[in-house]
């Protein structure tokens, strides 16, 4: 396994180490404020682009942990990749956050069973909508496979990384890219508990060369304006991208399916505000797995603290769901009250190694 050359956030590690849930939450909130200040102090990322990949159904009961009042069994949500460029020791680096290989991901048992239930046509042509592949988005941005230095996922649900990194039955699409992944996530995916099993692609990491994997034990600061934060709960090795832009500091993960889940009192989705009021809950969890709900709640408080308020509407925070609730005729009443749309910063370009030389 490879090691990483990046700075860390000692205040976050100290807070995370507290074994008592309530005091850990208080410490994470304070640490989150410090992390936010640190990231803001170094300016913005070099470039950011968000790329929609696929819109697909997802159980309403999971999406809002049962809080939304709707007869619709499924919401629709759009999974997106975020392309981030940052400077590390002077060199331009490219990270793909959530480059979902959805053609391979279809073998995850939860969606495979849905496909069996509704049939391939209904589930793939009517209920889901493909916007573009990782490959097509990168081509549009002018990037080639060897421009990609790192790939990372907020968690490994429905991910099959063999097509990107090489592994059993696959050759690597990206010749150089390394996977940044929490050690806990990498270890759990190798030996799943029955409650984890439905969400992971069988053999999705089998045979990936060890030198393509960077195991993380903590949050890391990749470069000015870009960090990966350890945010366990949804899965044990869950993590979030923090990226500073001219529109503010954004945090990206799948801990919630809509930005309003971080400020539920501002939500117009029937049931969300009432549930938050009733429970005194500050956040509404995306709750399909609940590997550790107390940690997920605390991780979401950390995320909203680091993200801070939206510059467009401060009653919402700069949380950018990696799979975002999307309005659909199949899910009446379940449309986002507020959406960031897309994030765009600077101009994505080929890395320093490929820059044309001056004559
Ligand atoms: Zn998930």
Extract low-pLDDT stretches.
none
Arithmetic mean of pLDDT: 93
Oligomer: single chain
Q: What amount of the residues lies in strands? A: 15-25%
The major pleated sheet works out as:
9 strands, mixed
Structural class: alpha+beta
CATH topology: Metallo-beta-lactamase, Chain A
Topology (elements, then pairings):
Elements lengths: L6 E2 L1 H7 L4 H21 L5 E13 H4 L10 E15 L2 E7 L4 H4 L3 H18 L2 E2 L3 H8 L8 E3 L9 H4 L12 E5 H7 L23 E4 L3 E4 L2 E5 L8 E7 L2 E6 L18 H8 L13 H15 L11 E3 L1 E4 L17 E2 L14
Parallel strand pairs: 4-6, 6-7, 7-8, 12-13
Antiparallel strand pairs: 1-9, 2-3, 2-5, 2-15, 3-4, 3-14, 9-10, 10-11, 11-12
Helix pairs in contact: 1-2, 2-10
The chain binds zinc ion.
The site of zinc ion (ZN) has 5 residues, from loops.
Task: Describe the fold and architecture.
There is one protein chain. The chain is an alpha+beta fold and 359 residues long. It has one domain: Ribonuclease Z/Hydroxyacylglutathione hydrolase-like (Metallo-beta-lactamase, Chain A, 4-Layer Sandwich), CATH 3.60.15.10. The protein is built from ten helices and 15 strands. The chain has helices at 10-16, 21-41, 60-63, 102-105, 109-126, 134-141, 162-165, 183-189, 272-279, 293-307; strands at 7-8, 47-59, 74-88, 91-97, 129-130, 150-152, 178-182, 213-216, 220-223, 226-230, 239-245, 248-253, 319-321, 323-326, 344-345. The strands form two sheets. Strands 2, 3, 4, 5, 6, 7, 8, 14 and 15 form a nine-stranded mixed sheet that branches. A six-stranded mixed sheet has the order 1-9-10-11-12-13. A hairpin with a 2-residue loop joins strand 3 and strand 4 (91-97). Helix 2 runs parallel beside helix 10. The chain is globular and about 50 Å long. It starts with 6 loop residues before the first strand and ends in a 14-residue tail after the last strand. The relative contact order is 0.20. Zinc ion binds next to loops.
């Amino acid at each position: 396994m490879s090691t990483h050359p990046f700075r860390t956030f000692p205040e976050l590690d100290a807070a995370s180490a507290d074994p008592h849930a309530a005091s850990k939450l208080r410490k994470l909130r304070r640490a989150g404020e410090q992390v936010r200040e640190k990231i803001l102090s170094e300016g913005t990322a070099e470039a950011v682009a968000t790329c929609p990949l696929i819109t697909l159904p997802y159980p309403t009961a999971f999406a809002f942990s049962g809080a939304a009042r709707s007869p619709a069994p499924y919401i629709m949500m759009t999974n997106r990749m975020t392309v981030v460029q940052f400077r590390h020791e002077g060199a331009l680096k490219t990270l793909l956050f959530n480059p979902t290989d959805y053609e391979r991901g279809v073998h995850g048992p939860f969606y495979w069973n849905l496909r069996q239930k509704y049939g391939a046509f209904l589930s793939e042509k009517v209920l889901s909508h493909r916007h573009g592949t990782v490959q097509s988005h990168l081509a549009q941005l002018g990037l080639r496979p060897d421009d990609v230095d790192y790939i990372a996922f907020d968690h490994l649900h429905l991910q099959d990384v063999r097509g990107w990194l090489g592994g059993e039955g696959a050759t690597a699409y990206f010749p150089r890219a390394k996977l940044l992944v929490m050690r806990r996530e990498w270890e759990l995916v190798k030996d799943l508990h029955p409650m984890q099993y439905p969400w992971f692609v069988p053999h999705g990491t089998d045979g990936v060369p060890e030198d393509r994997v960077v195991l993380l034990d903590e949050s890391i600061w990749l470069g000015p304006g870009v960090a990966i934060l350890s945010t366990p709960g949804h899965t044990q090795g869950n993590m979030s991208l923090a990226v500073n832009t001219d529109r503010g500091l954004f945090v990206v993960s799948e801990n919630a399916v809509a930005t309003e889940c971080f400020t539920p009192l501002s939500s117009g989705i029937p049931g969300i505000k009432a549930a938050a009021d009733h429970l005194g809950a500050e956040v509404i969890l995306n709750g399909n797995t609940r590997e550790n709900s107390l940690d997920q709640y605390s991780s979401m408080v950390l995320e909203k603290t680091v993200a801070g308020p939206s510059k467009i509407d401060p009653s919402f925070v700069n949380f950018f769901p990696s799979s975002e609730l999307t309005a659909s005729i199949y899910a009446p009443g379940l449309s986002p009250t507020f959406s960031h749309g897309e994030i765009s910063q600077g101009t994505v370009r080929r890395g320093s190694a490929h820059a044309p030389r001056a004559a």
